[in-house]
Design goal:
Structural class: alpha+beta
Number of helices: 3
Number of strands: 6
Shape: globular
Largest sheet: 6 strands, antiparallel
Strand order of the largest sheet: 1-2-3-4-5-6
Order of helices and strands: EHHEEEEEH
Strand content: 15-25%
Helix content: 25-40%
């Protein structure tokens, strides 16, 4: 009797835990596509993970053809050929959503920026996200020329 031989190659290596940078922002390698964004969301600490998943779901529902990437340890959302319209970043006490052309949105998101065009939405633990308003901002932002680094 022969011994069974594994046909799938060597056993898979255990994934290393994601390093959290200062403030709890996950360190994810630069990459394009949904997979690195999902890895970022999965590594978001505590309540922020559910917030990240909700934001991602609302963005995808609002802009089905959205492009995704992780760059500079932040998920970015954009339209192919138009640039990035939105970014997400984790801080110690909140999740920051950056609308790169936020001053062109109606109403303008509440958080000011050093950049003339960018506006922020900070989401703290226990905040109720106004999903309709967020989706309206996402729809408007996706229709504008995006940020191209």
């Amino acid at each position: 009797m022969r011994a069974a031989v594994a046909l799938n190659g060597p056993p898979a290596k255990k994934a290393k835990p994601v390093k959290l940078l200062s403030g709890g922002n996950p360190q994810i390698a630069k990459a394009d596509g949904d997979a690195p964004v999902q890895a970022y969301i999965a590594a978001m600490p505590g309540w922020k993970r559910d917030t990240g998943a909700l934001l991602d779901a609302l963005i995808v529902r609002t802009v089905p053809n959205v492009s995704k990437a992780v760059k500079w340890n932040s998920p970015l959302y954009g339209i192919e050929g138009q640039g990035w319209f939105l970014g997400v970043h984790v801080f110690t006490r909140y999740v920051k959503v950056a609308f790169f052309r936020g001053t062109s949105l109606q109403p303008v998101p509440p958080g000011a920026s050093k950049s003339n065009d960018t506006r922020y939405l900070d989401i703290h633990e226990g905040d109720e996200l106004d999903e309709a308003q967020f989706a309206a901002w996402v729809k408007q932002a996706a229709a504008l020329p995006g940020w191209v680094p």
